[in-house]
Amino acid sequence: MDKLAHAFSSGQFVIEQLRFQNQVLSVTLLSKDFAALEHLQRRLQQTKVKVSQTQASSHEQQVLATLELRL
């Protein structure tokens, strides 16, 4: 959770939902755009978090995405 908090510290994201199951943290979030989402994924990967994007779509001039995170 500490790695996730540091990655989200920019204030460009709103977490909609968190789920933890079978050692996987699923995060549904709103991002200002696809570039910010990509930047978040790279920051998490730099901290050795395995990131899988399960979905992303435009939603009211923002991006709604779900990421699966594993250590």
Outline the structure in words.
The chain has one domain (2-70): Gyrase A, domain 2. It has 2 helices and 4 strands, in the order αββαββ. It has helices at residues 2-7, 34-46, and strands spanning 13-21, 24-31, 50-59, 62-70.
> Terminal Cα separation, in Å?
11 Å
Assign the CATH architecture.
Answer: 2-Layer Sandwich
What is the CA-based Rg, rounded? Answer: 11 Å
Work out the number of β strands. 4
Instruction: State the helical fraction.
Output: 25-40%
Strand order of the largest sheet: 1-2-4-3
**Could you please say which CATH topology applies here?**
Gyrase A, domain 2
Shape: globular
H-E string: HEEHEE
Number of helices: 2
Structural features:
Gyrase A, domain 2; 4-stranded antiparallel sheet; globular; alpha+beta; 71 residues; 2 helices
